[in-house]
Amino acid sequence: MKPTFFRVRDDHNYSQRRFPWGHAVYGTLDAEIPQRACSACGRGFRTRYAGRLSVCTEYGREWSDVIGTSGNTVGFLISERVLSGLRDAGIDSFEYFEVEIAEVRSQRLRVLPQPRYYYISPTGRIDIDPVRTEFKLRVLGTCGECARLLFESIPPELSPDRWIPDRWIPKLDTWDGSHLLQFGNISGSDVLCTERVLLLAREHRWTNFRFQPVDISRRDSIRWRGIDYLGKKWPPDWYPAPASQGKNAAEWATQLRSRDPELHWAAIEALQELREEAIPALVPLLDADDERLRLDSARLLLYYEVEQIEVAESILDRCRAVVAPLSQAK
Ligand SMILES: [Zn+2]
């Protein structure tokens, strides 16, 4: 099914390095917002840059329409071409600030004409659906002042990122009709868009974008480079094929032995996805001669337990015994 909203970012890829990457971001936080926290719930607001912002870039053989950055608040920059394309299409639900490219490490890029770049801050809004999104913390309500969701405090046994749900589900009737937007009722700086923006990117051949459906699972979001918006095939695959497609659990477990890093990693991802189905294939590997195989199977089984899949306590004990010597060595 075609998704309604997409998460937008850069498609930076360390192995290809075709496009530049903003490895350092300098700027001043917006000083015109005097109030840095909500007066009712006390939580801080999303920070925003304004005025001067400089970015230093590395890598790249050609300038792209999006440059990813290491800045949390400034996730990516867009080129002048993208900015005017959006505005010509009547999309204006964002603020934008010109960015100075202060340093270009790539010698190839230094001699090429350089586009102007901008940092954007969307003003459109849609809320997360607090019922359909499976938060691991209880939602207590909504702040009457800033309208963000209020959660129970994170229990000490839960590591900080464990409360993040596997999928974010937007609540369609809270959409304000904007084509560039952010979630309204949570803090976070993900930039979202509608299909209209994705189609503009396709039409104008904007480079280095990555679009993913907003409700994709976290694991898929990490392993998949996104919708092939420039590809010949249209409509494209809106979601990635399952990582475990084409082989059964036993076959994937066999592929864990592969010394080819790509094949080995594909097997890890497939087995992560297969969960309870993979347990019978992984348990015998805890006694394998090969140390890497023992560790892989132990870690996968321990991962299932964290994901609340039922694994027998006796098996978990064996897994811990396999992993323990390693953590003691550190
Ligand atoms: Zn509040």
| Cα end-to-end separation | 47 Å
Structural class based on helices, strands and sheet pairing: alpha+beta
Radius of gyration (CA) equals: 23 Å
SS elements, strand count: 14
Number of domains: 2
Low-confidence stretches: none
Strand portion, in percent? 15-25%
* Mean pLDDT over the full residue set: 90
Helix content: 25-40%
> Helical segment tally?
9
Major β-sheet annotation? 6 strands, mixed
Task: Summarize, please.
By secondary structure, this protein is α+β, with helices and mostly antiparallel strands. It has helices at residues 80-88, 107-110, 195-203, 218-223, 249-255, 261-274, 279-282, 291-306, 313-329, and strands spanning 5-10, 21-29, 49-58, 66-69, 76-79, 94-104, 117-122, 124-128, 139-142, 149-151, 170-171, 180-183, 191-194, 209-213.
Report on this model:
This protein has helices spanning 80-88, 107-110, 195-203, 218-223, 249-255, 261-274, 279-282, 291-306, 313-329, and strands spanning 5-10, 21-29, 49-58, 66-69, 76-79, 94-104, 117-122, 124-128, 139-142, 149-151, 170-171, 180-183, 191-194, 209-213. The chain has 330 residues and is an alpha+beta fold. It has two domains: 5-223, no CATH class; 249-325, Leucine-rich Repeat Variant, CATH 1.25.10. The strands form three sheets. Strands 11-8-12-13-1-14 form a six-stranded mixed beta sheet. Strands 2-3-6-7-5-4 form a six-stranded mixed barrel. Strands 9-10 form a two-stranded antiparallel sheet. A hairpin with a 6-residue loop joins strand 9 and strand 10 (149-151). Residues 38, 40-41, 43, 143, 145-146, 148 line the site of zinc ion. Zinc ion is lined by residues 38, 40-41, 43, 143, 145-146, 148.
